[in-house]
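Researcher: Last one for today. Full complex below.
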Amino acid sequence: MSAQPMNAQAGHIEVRDLNISFKARGETVQAVKSVSLNVQPGEFVSLIGPSGCGKSTLMNAVAGFTQFNSGSLTLDSKRIEGPGSDRGVVFQQYSLFPWMTVRRNVEFGLKMKGVSQAQRETQARTLLGLAGLLAFENHYPSQLSGGMKQRVGIVRALATSPQVLLMDEPFGALDSQTRSVMQEILTNMWQKLRLSVLFITHDIEEAIFLSDRIYVMTARPGRVKAEIKVPLPRPRRPEMMDTPEFQTMIRSIKKLIREESLAAMGSELSDGGYGGLSMEIGPEGVAHVL
Amino acid sequence: MEPPPAAAPSYPTERKPVRQPKLSAIEGGANTAAGEARGFRLKDRLHSTSGGYLLGALSIGAVLLGWYLATRYKLDFYVRFGNIPAPADVWHSVLEVNHSSKFLVNIGISVRRVLLGFLLAAGGGVLLGILVGRYRIFRSLTMPAMEVFRPIPAIAWVPMAIMLWPSNEVSIVFITFLGAFFPILINTIHGVEEIDEVLFRAAHSLGAREKDVILYVVIPGALQHIFTGLAIGMGVAWVSLIAAEMISGQFGIGYFTWEAYSLISYPDIALGMITIGILGLLCSKAINIASKLAMPWMAMSAGAKK
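Model: Here's the assembly. Have a good evening.
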């Protein structure tokens, strides 16, 4: 997608010592506890962990939807203070505006930027063409399949040329076949665009296949348990999933997550925290497994 | 030959939208689903357009026949048809009222009152509904007062309205307004509240400011419920108008109907009633058409009606 002029140096997310808690039924729940992580410009980073570990909360904070209690959150050294079009967001649920056609959905961000109608149309059509969706530009979202809706959602998030793409389990609602096709489309798109991506998932294979780096989070309160570099070459091909290397990585991440899931259940049973089961690794709570 | 009516089960005259599986979604969105296969069975024929007209004519014909027979033989079985005008008498008065412009003037006055009251209610109800649905401060400020007034039927306002407003005309419009206002307000609030939170997040992350959110998310998102409110509001507006005209009115189709009773010109009562029915029907049809024009995306979802 050469239509997108990308600044190679932009798109650096830095999360430092972030704490997020919220009140639920009068009780304060700590969702994210002193999390530090970063996404380098043009890097694809996944955040993985057991369900309810606060990974979505963390992403919502980066997107600017959620307030955080302490720590710092910056994009290219600028503090993140609310949502903005410098961070494209792809949601888990379908989030297209049902009352706009596919093209109007894609044009929306450009319209908010004050781009003229003619220019918006050209740009939207170019992007839709690249995503193979041009034939559906005048369709309404209700006429599309789940995979297509999510593709339009990605195209819409990319239309404003953000430095960063935040994706919250974007393929979670899709069946496994559509899901693997979407993963391939996404990795190809990223290969061309080279923008920073923060990708939330609970699917280990998906995280390995797509990412340069993976952060594994602990059960609530969510902390970073491990940081894993994915040494697979680019561009990624689906065949890579069958290599022993890939399988080894799956096993080691599975082990890390299983410990956390057990810890989460243990804390529910004993109601006394999970400290005994989790391993404390390194001074910043970050382990370099590979 | 049309199928014999005796064999026809009583179908409703209006065709219910049949929920079809979303073929278009499975086929990748191309809206190429061919027309429904033509059925040869009686049931399928009756569901066709011409079959629908036939059944409609039958149903109205049955009412007219029953009316004719009841008045012809002056049925008296607790319900008394002795003084009820026959269909032919009503038809005569249709021809008669057209000799002067009085009848049309009455219709015109009623339509003007209803439109004025309804449009004011639509404007006010939708505007306030959006503010209340979107901003908590508006809810806290206005809803307690609204909840006090809401249970009072518009007709109960008649004596107060006559004292309150400088002319009879204004007080009738006010009562019509009141009738339409609350259904529109409540449905608009509901519509705004129903909008999926993720759409607001999506809009914000695409750079939308509050003005844009209202314009491109809140209003279109609430539109379906707003139109529900408008349809109900229009119905209640007519109810309130007719009642107000009968009680306090000069002119208007409600006044015409009540006057016919006072003057013992019974066919005109039926004429007034039928006219009110037709006017109400036209108004609700107009809202129906407006809603289809305003929400083209609704036609595309959930088994597009052809």
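Residues 25 and 31 of chain A are 15 Å apart (CA to CA). The first strand of chain A starts at residue 13 and ends at 24.
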